[in-house]
Amino acid sequence: MAQNSKPPGPDQSRNEYIPSFISKRPFWAETTPDADYLEHQRLQSAPKDTLDQAKWYERGKKAGPAATKFRKGACENCGAMTHKTKECLSRPRKLGARWTGRDIQADEVVEDVQLGWDAKRDRWNGYDPREYTAVVKEYEELEALKRATAKSKDGDKTLENGDVDTDGINEETADSDARYGEETDMGRSQPTSTRQLRLREDTANYLRNLDLDSAKYNPKTRTMDTTALKEAGEMDAEEGFIRSSDEAAEFERAQRYAWETQEAAAAKAGTKKLHLQANPTEGEILRKKQAQEAAEKKAAARKALLERYGGDEFLKQDPMKKARQVFENERYVEYDESGRVKGEARQIARSKYTEDVLVNNHTSVWGSWWRDFTWGYACCHSTVKNSYCTGESGRVAFEEAQGLRTGQALLLEDDKSQDKETDLTRRKVVADEDSKAQSRIEAVVGDEKERLRLEQTGDAREADGHHGTTEAGSNAATTATAHAKKRTLQELQSGISEEELESYKRNRVAADDPMAALLGKDELVELH
């Protein structure tokens, strides 16, 4: 029997590049397939979840007819069993299917889709190619419409012998197809390739002008920024064959204005076209007229703004301002620790509000007087800012109004009435004392006259007795007169001095004092 000389096939689970002491499992390791810690070193089988085998499901597919009765555990809103109430995508009903039992929706088809790593990240997974049929149909309709338009516009081109020029038609169709293929957007009038590409033999824009002081190239818009070239004589470097003078720049502006005028005339029928070389005087007059109208329009707008909002005084230039400016001098200046100039008067910080402005005949500013958490004028005590000053009469009126409002006027009237009564009483007491003293003085004077009469008549005994009486009376009168003279104005007004009042308080007996009856007695009080 002949032996098969075919060598055995290689073991797929064996890696020839891993040593045996690593690939073989040791005796102490577990034999379960889950404990294969060398699985990552073995040859892996081909993945089963390829993109061509990936499954998908139809969104929103219903499983069979809907139920006729609400089932326990179903969605309370629509009655389906495949989702909960919080996950329901139907419109929230005023009364759900759980309470009404009407319009119960069918259950959705829920498929367990197992996607691999690539299938999860496949942007076209689940896309239906049939949806692209509408896009293809739209392009076909546009192509048919374009061919029909080209045919109706040109018509059949016939030769002199009557044959149809089919070659010309085929060439035009091919050209239109090529242009159509270059365009990426159907709505643009200019092909994108024409706008974004340039010929290789053309010089790049950023290489045309190598002057660093001229216009700058904008790489984003791929244009040359020439907006800063407003001064005359600033021309580009590639136009160096033209003199860079004032006349050259002015000519460029005139040429540009003529071109813009021609474009406007072409767009608007009935407008006269402007040609710079044929009639340069007309172009110059029109340019000056346009500049004058623009300047007048700008001045009118400026004037309207100033009339409405003001501020013309801030726009006027002070001719002496520049002359007053000192840029450099030899004056020696020293500064202190805070940065101020030594010896210089400290300037008071001015507020942004108006200060020291007297209005409405006031002699003080608003806020110079404060009363009861209210600001006012100190000259008339008025708390109304737009009021007219009333002077001293206004202050008196304000105090009277405050007194009536707070009740102080009534208290002042009571005090005045009490003071009047006290004054009348004091005047009466003083008048009584004065009358008594005057009567005593008159008595003494009468006695002295009587004594002198008796002495002249010769009755000595009666004169001596009358003299003693007269001396006693004169002493009493002298004492009363001296007492009356020594009294102060306060004593005359009050009638009682402080010493007399104090002695009265010491000598009087308190009626309600329980120990007053034992004063000056050596008796013991029995305790009850």
Automatic annotation (TrEMBL):
<keyword id="KW-0539">Nucleus</keyword>
<feature type="region of interest" description="Disordered">
    <location>
        <begin position="152"/>
        <end position="199"/>
    </location>
</feature>
<keyword id="KW-0508">mRNA splicing</keyword>
<keyword id="KW-0747">Spliceosome</keyword>
<comment type="subunit">
    <text>Associated with the spliceosome.</text>
</comment>
<feature type="compositionally biased region" description="Basic and acidic residues">
    <location>
        <begin position="176"/>
        <end position="186"/>
    </location>
</feature>
<feature type="compositionally biased region" description="Basic and acidic residues">
    <location>
        <begin position="502"/>
        <end position="511"/>
    </location>
</feature>
<feature type="region of interest" description="Disordered">
    <location>
        <begin position="412"/>
        <end position="528"/>
    </location>
</feature>
<feature type="compositionally biased region" description="Low complexity">
    <location>
        <begin position="470"/>
        <end position="482"/>
    </location>
</feature>
<feature type="compositionally biased region" description="Basic and acidic residues">
    <location>
        <begin position="446"/>
        <end position="469"/>
    </location>
</feature>
<dbReference type="Pfam" id="PF11708">
    <property type="entry name" value="Slu7"/>
</dbReference>
<feature type="domain" description="Pre-mRNA-splicing factor SLU7">
    <location>
        <begin position="115"/>
        <end position="368"/>
    </location>
</feature>
<feature type="compositionally biased region" description="Polar residues">
    <location>
        <begin position="187"/>
        <end position="196"/>
    </location>
</feature>
<feature type="compositionally biased region" description="Basic and acidic residues">
    <location>
        <begin position="413"/>
        <end position="439"/>
    </location>
</feature>
<protein>
    <recommendedName>
        <fullName>Pre-mRNA-splicing factor SLU7</fullName>
    </recommendedName>
</protein>
<keyword id="KW-0507">mRNA processing</keyword>
<comment type="function">
    <text>Involved in pre-mRNA splicing.</text>
</comment>
<dbReference type="InterPro" id="IPR039974">
    <property type="entry name" value="Splicing_factor_SLU7"/>
</dbReference>
<dbReference type="InterPro" id="IPR021715">
    <property type="entry name" value="Slu7_dom"/>
</dbReference>
<feature type="compositionally biased region" description="Acidic residues">
    <location>
        <begin position="162"/>
        <end position="175"/>
    </location>
</feature>
<dbReference type="GO" id="GO:0005681">
    <property type="term" value="C:spliceosomal complex"/>
</dbReference>
<comment type="similarity">
    <text>Belongs to the SLU7 family.</text>
</comment>
<dbReference type="GO" id="GO:0000398">
    <property type="term" value="P:mRNA splicing, via spliceosome"/>
</dbReference>
<dbReference type="GO" id="GO:0030628">
    <property type="term" value="F:pre-mRNA 3'-splice site binding"/>
</dbReference>
